[in-house]
Each structure stands twice: as structure tokens, then as C-alpha cells.
Amino acid sequence: MNKTFLFIFLFIQNLLFAQFSERSLSSEKWQFKNSKEQKWLPAKVPGTVHLDLMNNQLIPDPYKDENEKKSQWIENEDWDYQTHFNISSEELENQNIDLVFEGLDTFSEIYLNGKLLKKTDNMFRKWEFLVKQYVKMGDNLLQIKFRSAVNVGKELAKKVPFMMPESPRSFVRKAQYQFGWDWGPRLVTAGIWKDVKLSFWNNAKLENVKFEQKGLTKQMADLNFHFEIFADNEGIYEISIDNKKNQLQLKKGSNNVDIPFTIENPKLWQPNGWGDPNLYTVKVSLQKDSKIISNEDLRIGLRTIEFIQEKDGKGKSFYFKVNGHPLYIKGTNWIPADSFSPRITKGKYQQLIKDSKEANMNMIRIWGGGIYEDDEFYRACDENGILVWQDFMFAGSFYPADEDFLNNVKEEVRGQVNRLQNHPSIALWCGNNEVDEAIVNWEYQKQFKYSKEDSLQVWKDYKKVFHEVIPNTLKENLAADKNIYWPSSPSIGWGHKESLTEGDSHYWGVWWGEQPFEIYNEKVGRFMSEYGFQGMPSLETTESMFSGDPDLSLQSPTIKAHEKHGRGWEIINKYMERDYPVPTDFVKYNYVSQLLQARGMQIAIEAHRRAKPYNMGTLYWQLNDCWPVVSWSSIDYLGNWKALHYQIKRSFEQQVLLTEEKEGTLNLYAINDNQNVFRNLTVEIKVVKFNGEVIGTVSSEEKTLNEIVKFDPVKIDRLISDSSKNEVFLKLTLKGENAKIVAENNFFFGKPKDLKLTKPNITIRKISPTEIEVSTDVLAKDVYLLGDIHFSDNFFDLLPKSSKRIKLSKSLEKVEVMSLWNTVNP
Ligand code: BMA
After folding, report:
1. What is the pLDDT of residue 294?
2. CB-CB neighbours of 402 under 10 Å
């Protein structure tokens, strides 16, 4: 071998052995079985036992028919998983081999070649072990034995001398929605729900990298990178940040290293609506003898977020300043996108976040009864300018606070915060969903006959977890500029008047309290983090509830089983009777239920936005579903936009013109969520009959709009007599300089059921295979285009003698159409 070859050979060999490498074990052949049985069956990793049973045709799909009931036995069983994997001699030459489980659901014992490595007890933690001493060249056997989480939970519950609500769910650190929710089936699953891998490393490895933004000006972003490094061998190493090298001495064991780094003329990360969510890729690596031994690519965004709570005349403010300016928050609540979360694809995450961006949102709250989401979720939020309100995974119950539980929570929080904190999208960390509210307002103590001591204990435990352990763990692990913590959402329950003057609030007087939608106009808090109303899913999703021919009727047991709220149907019906004609035909009922939901949310959102800046945020309940179901979602399980999502897009526009009818007058508000100013604004009001005849026009005075402006109230009897109120609508146009249209709106005096609609002649013309033009002669209220595809707009009002172009996601042979008129006419 000549010298050059020898050099190249040594160089490659060095690269091979010195470099850090990873190998996923998920793609190995996995098997599973009920621990009572002998026969192993093929399994998929990442996955869950329910999916494996389904793939082996041992249970029917629990999402279909009434099959959920048929899979309840699974939660009481123990399940074993195993795989064989090979280790090569080259792999064995590495100094260290780690076995890494990104997620195990939940109580398991891990055996490698027969040796017990660890017992696990938390679905939300990553489990990592040095296994070089236990692996051997050639074949290795990895086994994971899962115990029934329900049975383990029952044992844990015995530690507490009183009954906990929905026991044993809160004793197990496992996605709480698996135990059933008012929009989700009970599917308490088990399994290897995230990737399993081997990682090979030498000398040292980067365990964690985070950065603090110490200063941000137009000229400079001043950052400090913090590295946690584990070194097997002490010595001289190098850390590079984007090719800038720094030499350092590492001691054996754990090392903490800080390195300053600057970015000149930084381009900011902006939330959706304010500009581009600019991201920088920063490459960091650890080197030994000029060879990379561990590295990571960070995608970071430069922005500032301040969480402002200041006393004012009415209570206390609650808002976010982003990049120095108050940001009005518009968004929604997120639940896991599947009851079997391992099968949520990257594409599904991307699509749901894209749909949120398209509907003009700038924040999503990850609700605490689900899971800390997949990296892809946060990546999509970073890229689309969607801020994240991150709940920790505790919801609607009491939680224990014994030492084991607290240590477990501490490790969970540490792990999740270190995984997620570099995402620019994360705005706030919140302790829990409705745990404070459950303790204070839901009267479980009475129901379970607590003694005074028991009640005190519950509150003490609550304080321990959410006011001590979690915030302390955040302080230890979060970069200082990212430490924004809020203990519980909501901070005060909706029965208390303070819930409207401070903190965030969940307003459930509509739906749970059965108050009319109009109450939303009065119940406006500083930051509305939940409120909602149910609507049925699309027809496509409804049909998917059936394994055979769909029986589309409200009496169908299958359809009934896909409504998880005890009084759901009753409540929908009650509200429908108030505002809409109640159709008997299923398709029409489905359509009206969606209109009803959209109407309720429109009323709520408009009330919130009109109250700006008293109110600085509105997050409706809820964006998505985890299976095909009648629920509060705006997008159903198959990804179809319900009428609500189209309405959200309209209601969340950056500039809107909103109305408020009060004691014979009409108030008009213009709202702007950007930082520019609109001058010389006027509102033109046209009184239009349903056949298109304009019977009056008035114009407002001129105003300047910064964030919100109210025009002089308009006396309604100046516009129209009482008797013809249900035959006309107001066409409202907000015009700026050079008559430029800034926003538009239509106002109807009556409820939809009272409108004296006449039959519209709706015609559809094909422009291209994926574009149509919809036209009408007289007003077509709530035009509904039917088809299992996505329409760029739907459930919209088509004004008399007008037309609208609509894009289709796929070409359709024929587009069927109906409007509100059809609900009272055959
Ligand atoms: C909210 C949520 C969920 C629930 C929803 C609708 O308060 O936190 O617990 O699904 O109400 O009832």
C-alpha cells in the first residue's frame, strides 16, 4: 500500500470508528404476544398493542361500528414484545453503545439478552442505557414486557387514603385521553410508541444543547450556547458553532460548557400575520483530534416573547409582547391527532399546522390530556409562525405527590423541556389543564366524601406539583429568556367573576351551561383559552364510522356511539331549535349542525376581538379529532374542514369590520392586528333586499385605525323598518384611502330560522378541472358544496347576483350544492 492509500485508509477508518453513529432498531423484525400465551405474532415498532392486534386481525377496528366496546379487555392484559438484532464486530469496537427508547407506554421491564436493564413507569420519558457490556457480536435478544397500566394504576391508587376522580388515570404517567374523553374513545393502550435505537460513540458525546438569547437588536443577536457533554475520556476537545472553533478541556463525566455566539443583522422570526418566521440553521459539533464525534443541527428563530400581567383598573392584563409589540392571539386547542398516536404521519402534522396558518392563526395550545407532541409538530409550528402554548400532561383530575411521583414528574419535565426549548414557536409552559379548576369547582370532594384533612391534602399535593416541582425544574433547565410559566389553564373557573378580569379563562356557559350563544357578548375575559361548541364531522368522515354500508341516520347505533358527550345530541338539538330550522333529513341535519357550530364560534370570537385590548387572545376548543366523532373540532379526523374552520379563517382575518346590535343601534368596530395605521377610514352601509335590490345607503364619518376603532353608532330604524328586518341584510364595507377595501361583512338582523329566504338559483360553471364558479340570482345563504374533496371556500353567503370562484383539491365529476333555503324546502 503506498503512502497516499495508507493515509486515506487510516482517515476513513478513523472516521468510521471515531464518529458518532446511530442505528434504529425499529425496522428490525418485532414480535408480540399476550404474556399469558405462547405464540408470538408479528408487531410493528413504533406502535401500540391495539394496532398490532388489528394488523393480526385479532380485533376489529375500534373506530368503526360499536367496536370500541369490543377492545376494552386489552387494557387489563400484560403484553410482551421482542426482537433479535445483530451487532457487528465493527460496531463492537466503539467505546460506548447506548440503547435508547424514545418512548415506552408505560409500565415495562426491559431485558437485553436475558438481563433486566430497567423498569419503566412513564410514557413521556426517554430511557437510555449504556449497554456495551451486555451486547455481544452476532445475535442479541431485546425484550420488553408491558404490564397493564390499569392494573398497575389500581395498585398505585391504594397509596392514597381517599378516592381520586376517574381513578386510576391520574396515578399513571400516560396520555390521559386514552382513558376516554368527551370527544375520544377509551383505548388504554401499551407498546413501544416511539423509536428504539442504538447509538455508538467514542470519547464523549453531546447530551444536550440549548441557547439563551441575551440580547436582540437590529444589529446583533447576542446568544449564549450551553452544552452538556458527557466525556468518557478526559482531554482536549473542540466545539464548533457554525465552523467557529473553541478548544476546551473536558473532565471525565458530565461537563457544562458555555460559548457565546453572535449573529449580525438578525432577521427576526415573526408570528403568522406579521411577516416571515425566519429560521437559522446553526450547526454545532464536538470534535476530538479534528474529527467530529458528536453533532447536531439546530433550527433556531430569533424573537423576543414577554408575558405581560399588569394590574389595571379592571383587573390584570394577560398578553404576549412579541418582538416588542403586543400580539393579539388567535388560535385554537390541539388534542392528539389519533388515539393511536404512533401512526400520526409527518404529513398529517404538517397539514394540520398549514390549515391553522391558512385560517390566520398565530397560536396553538397543546392541551394537557394528550401527549408532548412529536418533533414534527413543533417543526411545523416554527416554520409556519404558529406560537405554542405548551401544557404539561395533566388534565381534569387530582394528582398524587408522593416522592416517587414527584421524581418521575421532575424527570419527565426535564426531558421534555430539553427536547423542546430551542423551538422558537414555544411561547409558554403551562402546568396543567383544569386541575386547579377540578379541585376548586367540580365538587369531587363532596362526591367522594372527603374529610377535611383529605381536601387539604389534595390542595397541598397540587401546590407541590404545580407551584413547586414543575417551576423549579423549569428554572433549572430552561434558558432564562424562555422561562415563562403559568401554573394552570384556566387560572380561575368560569363560575367566578374574576375569571373575566384576570388570567386565562375557559368559558363553558355555552354548551356545558346551555346558555344561548349571545351570552358570549358578555362573558369576555382577558384571554380566552377555551370555549366551544360541537358540530358533526363531514359526510366522508361520518361514513368512515361504518365497516359496511353506512346507515346515515341519527338513530343509527354507530353514529350515536361516535358522540362521546353524555348529552351531546340533546344539547346540539336544543341550540339548533333556538337558531335554525331542524331538518329531519340526515345530510341536512349534518349540514345545519356544522352551521350552528360555526355561528356560535363566530359570535364568541367577534365579542373577544371587539374587546381588544382588554381581551388579548382567543383560542377556541378545538382544532382536531383523534377518531371519527361528533365534536368541538373545526377539522375532522380525516382532515376535512368543517363549516367552522372556514368561519375561523374569516373571523381571524388581520383586519375585520365587526358589528354589535344593542338597544336599537348598530355599533361598528374596525380592528387591525398589524402594526400599520389606516387613515381616512369609512364604513359604507348598504341595505339590500334578498333579491339584490339596494334600498338605502349610508356612510359613516372618517376614522383612523391603529388597533381598534369604534364608529358612531347607527340607529337601526334609520336604516330599516321593523317589519322588513328579515327580508334584508346590511352589506358593510370598510374603505380606506382611494376607496381601497380594507374589510367587508354582512349583517343579518334575524336568526337564520327567521330569515324570509327565497329559492336561489345556484349555478356551477367549470372553469378548469380544479376550479369552479358558483353564481346565484338571489341571496344564497350558507352555500354548501358537497364532495369528498377540499374546496378553497365553503359554507359561505353568496350575495344576490354575484359569483365566486372556488378551487378544488381534486377534479370532481359533479359538484352538488345546497343552501340554507334547502333545509326548509325539499
Ligand atoms: C375542556 C377541555 C376538555 C373537554 C372540553 C369539552 O375544558 O379541557 O377537557 O374535552 O372541555 O368538554
Report:
1. 95
2. 14
Give 618's strand partners: 330, 528
What is the reported pLDDT for 20?
A: 82
66 catalytically annotated: no
CA-nearest of 240, 174, 228, 188 to 204 is: 228
Atom index in ligand 1 nearest the CA of residue 367 equals: 8
Best CA proximity match to 368, nearest among 402, 413, 306, 406: 413
If you take atom 4 of ligand 1, which residue's CA is the nearest one? 182
Beta strands 505-506 and 485-486, pairing class = unpaired
Mutate to test the pocket of ligand 1, among 332, 530, 630, 634 (most ligand atoms within 8 A of CB): 530
Give the pLDDT mean for 803-822: 97
**367, 335 Cβ separation under 8 angstroms:** yes
**What is the 8-class DSSP label of residue 589?**
H
C-alpha 788 – ligand 1 centre gap (Å): 29
DSSP SS3 for 130: strand
Domains of the chain: 2-199 (2.60.120.260), 203-300 (2.60.40.10), 324-649 (3.20.20.80), 655-754 (2.60.40.10), 763-823 (2.60.40.10)
Predicted pLDDT at 4? 54
Encoded amino acid at 770, one letter: T
Q: For residue range 238-296, list pLDDT tens digits in order.
A: 999 998 999 999 999 999 999 999 999 999 999 999 999 999 999 999 999 999 999 99
